[in-house]
Amino acid sequence: MSKNYQQIKISTDYITLGQLLKFSGIIDNGSEAKEFIFNNEILVDGEECKMRGKKLRGGEKIDINGSVFLEITR
Predict the structure, then answer these.
(1) Are 19 and 52 in contact (CB under 8 A)?
(2) Per CATH, is 4-73 categorized as 3.10.290.10?
(3) pLDDT, tens digit, for every residue of 28-66?
(4) First and final CA of the chain: distance in angstroms?
């Protein structure tokens, strides 16, 4: 993965980590989420997260392997 930054705009109260990975194009479908999360370092606001159902809300920042950075906006 190349180093990049992407803002993800949501219109709902939250998006799950698994949905975010799919929506941002990091994975192709939801069934890949569990394995991807298990095999990669994912930080949500600096804390490691291994829960694909983790609810992400506006303002939270996601760091994947120190090379992909996502920010949730509303």
Answers:
(1) no
(2) yes
(3) 998 999 999 999 999 999 999 999 999 999 999 999 999
(4) 26
